[in-house]
Amino acid sequence: MKYRTMGKLGVQTSAFGLGCMRFNGEASGDSVIDEEKAIRLIRQAIDGGVTYLDTAYVYLNKTSETVVGKALRDGYREKVTIATKMPLGHVHDRQSMEALLEEELEKLQTDHIDFYLMHGVNKEEWEKFKEIGAPEFFDDMKREGRIRYKCFSFHGPYEDFEYILNDYDWDMVQIQYNFMDIENQAGLKGLKLAGEKGIPVVVMEGLLGGRLSNAPDNVQALYDAFPVKRSAVEWAFRWLCNHKEVAVVLSGCNEPEQIAENLRIFDTVEAGVMDEAELRLMENVRKAYLDRTRIGCTGCKYCMPCPNGVNIPGIFSVWNNVSLYCADPAKDWGLKRIKENGAGADKCVGCGACEAACPQHLPIIDRLRNAWEELC
Ligand SMILES: NC(=O)c1ccc[n+]([C@@H]2O[C@H](COP(=O)([O-])OP(=O)(O)OC[C@H]3O[C@@H](n4cnc5c(N)ncnc54)[C@H](OP(=O)(O)O)[C@@H]3O)[C@@H](O)[C@H]2O)c1
Ligand code: SF4
Ligand code: SF4
After folding, report:
1. Does 176 map to a domain?
2. Ligand 2 mean position to 27 CA, how many Å?
3. Which of 18-22, 169-173, 278-282 has the lowest mean pLDDT?
4. Domain range spanning residue 324?
5. What is the mean pLDDT of residues 65-87?
6. Does residue 298 sit within a domain?
7. What is the CB < 6 Å shell around ligand 1?
8. Residue 338 in 3-state DSSP?
9. Most buried of 88, 93, 143, 307, CB within 10 angstroms?
10. One domain, residues 60 and 169
11. Looking at the structure, do residues 90 and 216 belong to the same domain, yes or no?
């Protein structure tokens, strides 16, 4: 296992951090956790050199922290740092924040949390966190030693990231990042900004939740043609660790074989380890994925709202994602939500209002029909 220094904190950490959100394969709050198996997986990772665990109050129907707490008995707690999170939906004032932290400490069977994150913050949520006094609460808890570092996790647009990062004295940030997301969310720009401020970055969804682990044919052909043979998973992690600003790469593993494989990979990766040919390969891999895009919808939403409730950018986004990553539409949460909300393309009456508003001049009506036929 390679260890890295966490920016201005100077703390040493394993490059591979175990994400405790996906045991049993489901990221949804409804999944039922196989406790014994999860404990075995967590301990396997720690025995292999992992020193960073990421969980959250809401993961796995609120059972993730409890399982992590059980796994960290018998001397394992002393070997790791724990990151967990405070969700805005469960707190509304000082008292409820205190109660939630207390519950988390109890579930985790510990007297302090190393990295305490405001969970999934965008600008609007950050303002709400400020209204309920979360920044002052984090300051006080750090002073009292109940938490060691003040952090936030992020999935919003770059502008929000810059605003939040500059608005408080953060110790660490957690962002979604991988070679397909360099221009999405915080992206490469956000990573660099945090790096300039010395704020360590923990990366989540390094494999896009597993979607980058099975390369489609046109991508696999590029990997196969490269003189050094590595799996798609290894290339993705190697590319991430090549960034000096990345302190920890989280990955949620469901099987002992995945942990073993990731332990092997993270034994070989360091910042600056990739040469020019490797970086060119990854740029070509990214382009090969993007070549699979079905429609050039930018998600600007100028076409919205549709008078008949069709979620136009949502449908196009699912269509593109399914094509890019050879995903099964039946398992796509975005599509499930669109159907549940009655916002499918079957509601389109062809009025044309959306096409008149689209700055990309997309033939929306025809493409919606194509997308719906393929997805449903
Ligand atoms: N704060 C937030 O808002 C937030 C959001 C997302 C994630 N997170 C945290 O970040 C962690 C990491 O994100 P993630 O779980 O999405 O990470 P990820 O590495 O992008 O995806 C994990 C998935 O990749 C597959 N995988 C992992 N190692 C593999 C290997 N060696 N070979 C083949 N497949 C492999 C597994 O999928 P299969 O089992 O399907 O093969 C696994 O479930 C989460 O567990 C969670 O703790 C936080
Ligand atoms: S053409 Fe269809 S999708 Fe577009 S605005 Fe009219 S009903 Fe909505
Ligand atoms: S206006 Fe066009 S590009 Fe923008 S979200 Fe709608 S379909 Fe996509």
Report:
1. yes
2. 33
3. 18-22
4. 312-375
5. 97
6. no
7. 19-22, 25, 54, 119-120, 153, 155, 174, 204-210, 213, 233, 250-254, 258, 261-262
8. helix
9. 88
10. yes
11. yes
